Amino acid sequence: MRHSRTLLASLAVTAAVLATAAPAHAAAPGYTALGDSYSSGVGTREYYSDSGGCQRSPHAYPVIDAGRLGATLTFAACSGARVTDVQGQLGALNSGTSYVTVSVGGNDAGFADVITQCAKPWPYTCTTEINNANNFIRNTLPARLDGLYAQIKAKAPNARVAVVGYPRLFNGQECNFFARISPGEQSALNGTADLLATTTAGRAAAAGFAFVDSRAAFTGHAVCSSSEWVNGLSNPVSESYHPNRAGQVGYANIVEPVLRGTAAAPAFKDTTPSLTDPAKIKAILDAEAKADARAAGFVAAD
User: What is d(CA 88, CA 75) in angstroms, rounded to the nearest whole number?
Assistant: First the structure.
């Protein structure tokens, strides 16, 4: 009996020592996804039922990359968000946050409204709307981004932050009968995307954040391409001109290595000058409007 008690006591001590010596599992790193519809996953046609108007999708790149990184995701991104809205998404950030992604600026510039105006048929034009958006991006958006990025850095000082940019949406083709966006308008809208990308990249660099330029990855996958990553005019309309599920995977593939710190996003190179000059935009779109007038049987004044 004494021997049995001694043996049991010995086993109990051994078990206690082994339990104490067992390595503790590290907590999963925290990842907070901030931003607008391009981060929430609008365009993928499936959304979490509790996300309401924010339209957060299980197919969005933050969800994909959180799984790849083994991270716990705080999915704060919300459709329609502007910089001031994203400032309200920062509640989960803290010194323990490991990863942050943020996409914002397109709604501040009114990009959706610009595309809506451009999609209207002749005699409507969108010259004024494009030039107004470009002026906003040049003159107002930088300070807004600076303020937001400073807040992110203050709240999550140890996080690796990736500022995620928007792609060019168009390739010069017209394939949406009910959304007539002319080649000239497409070129000007791509120019706005370029201006937004370079402006955002500059402010991200000033804050010490990485910029994920999506334009190279999305080349060949624009609206009307044979392998679209971006929806054209869709039903419901809110799905229009947003990345589809393939586009979100495309985003995930370029964001993940930036968050890991193993690679930068592919550089965008284009030998064609970006169309952002107001006078050139007006001249090109005016010429198209005159051609449309002639085609409709009207004589446009020179």
Answer: 13
Kindly state the DSSP code that residue 114 receives in the 8-state scheme.
H
Cβ–Cβ under 8 Å, residues 61 and 122:
no
Residue 211 and residue 1: Cα distance in Å, rounded?
72
* Intra-chain end-to-end CA distance of the chain, in Å: 113
Element (H, E) at 162: strand 160-164
Active-site position among 37, 79, 182, 214: 37
- Describe the strand order of the beta sheet including 72-75 as a list of residue ranges: 72-75, 30-35, 97-103, 160-164, 210-212
Q: Of residues 79, 182, 187, 242, which has the active-site annotation? A: 242
The CATH number of 27-295 is 3.40.50.1110
Per the annotation, the verdict on 37 as an active-site residue is yes
Are 253 and 217 in contact by the 8 Å Cβ rule? The answer is yes
Contact between 74 and 31 (Cβ < 8 Å): yes
Structure tokens at 156: 């999550």
Give 245-291 as a DSSP string. HHHHHHHHHHHHHHHHTS-PPPPP--SSPP---HHHHHHHHHHHHHH
Hunting for tokens 């993940």 — which residue is that?
256
The tens place of each residue's pLDDT in the chain, 302 residues long, gives: 444 444 444 444 444 444 444 455 678 899 999 999 999 999 999 999 999 999 999 999 999 999 999 999 999 999 999 999 999 999 999 999 999 999 999 999 999 999 999 988 878 888 999 999 999 999 999 999 999 999 999 999 999 999 999 999 998 777 766 767 888 999 999 999 999 999 999 999 999 999 999 999 999 999 988 899 999 888 888 889 999 999 999 999 999 999 999 988 888 887 677 888 888 898 888 788 888 777 767 654 55
**Amino acid, single-letter form, for residue 179:** A
Query: Per-domain residue ranges for the chain?
Result: 27-295
